[in-house]
Sequence to fold (465 residues):
Amino acid sequence: MTQLIEDVDVVVIGGGVVGCAMFRRFTLMGSKVLLLEKGGDILSGASKANSAILHTGFDAPTGSLELQCMQAGYQEYMDIHHRMNLPLLKTTAIVVAWTEEQLAALPGIVKQAHDNGVLDVTQIDAEDVYNREPNLAKGALGGVYVPGEYVIDPWSSPLAYVTQAVQHGGKYRFNCGVTKATRYEEGWELETTQGVVRTRLVINCAGNHGDLIDGLWRQPDFEIRPRKGQFLVYDKAAAAQINAIILPVPTPTTKGVLLCRTIFGNMILGPTAEEQQDREHAEVNEKVLKSLIEKGSLMLPSLTHFSVTATYAGLRPATEKKEYRIYDYPNDQWISVGGIRSTGLTAALGIAAYVEELYQRNFSKLFELSPPTTLSWPHMPMLSEYEQRDYSCKGNGGVICHCELVTRRELEAVFDSAVPPECIGGLRRRTRVMMGRCNGFFCSNHVAEIVGTRLDNTLVVGKVE
Fold:
């Protein structure tokens, strides 16, 4: 088979948010890294559908690896987001109790938060709940106030991690699935759908396929059991109905359904938690979505006045245990990062730091490190509805997508970026074009003219004379 790329120290398998953070971490560490993603773009799997919350870890299992990675990731994001022009919406969160049983659970939630080091979490009474959230339905008995829970951009952040890695010499391949792994004296030979690559270290971040990738060479130490979450996206006008993230009191089986504003100006309602066998397809179900609407309207009656403009579903790579499944195999020059569920967006940077620590502590010296003397920081396009956007700046070439206010300059610039889109999904995630309430009905023709034939699955199908 064709040699995909030569002289690689590390191959990261999987371009979800954790793989993107890992790619960045090991590149900045000074190693030669190749990121392989079998989809057409980063975030093609589990990472493309989440609630985009930056979690404090207030309700994570005390003393767990998940908590450690979440809090490390939270802190690193707070340290670097301004340098990368990444948005941060300081919403706060309130866990709302609607029954006496739920009210009785609130002190335990506060205690767990404090045990986890999140000391600003407090219990509040019903009056305080309604002072903060006057549009909530009547009947709330109290809540837990979590000041540090925020909302971020779920797509620009991982793209920034990849972009910084590329700026420092990292390489990537999309549409490149790993099909075979063969051990040889110095490391691994990986057969992919685009050719063969040899590497000294493999880091498996394959999400919903993580156990299958491990299964290419050993009996996996974990089993992926995909868990589907369905979401509703409400029209932008609905976002003004809440201030904080509205969380339910969790049960032993689920964290429940939340209401949350998004960076893009919408409100989301969800997710569900449904076990399934299929690792590829996360279909939305009309009956389930109607049930979600009913639950949301019970919490926030004014939701009945607003339209649902989109629905989506994602598959979380849950396993047979409720914990992260990170394993290092020093003698085999392999690290597996599995079972990273809904907290992965927050924890990704922390997970990458933890894996670097595992490598430095437990592995022999596999390759020479040449860390950059100075770091380059990418300046990402601003997509937040709550910050200045390109449409308000001069010389933008005009607005192409009026639902999401995407300009011609933004669309053209993305193809000159360090990590340009290679598919329509990648273009949409990088710019928000065709992701508004009309789903591209009005702008797709203009988008097709700008894109031309630069994408494999182009929108251009011919010209009507």
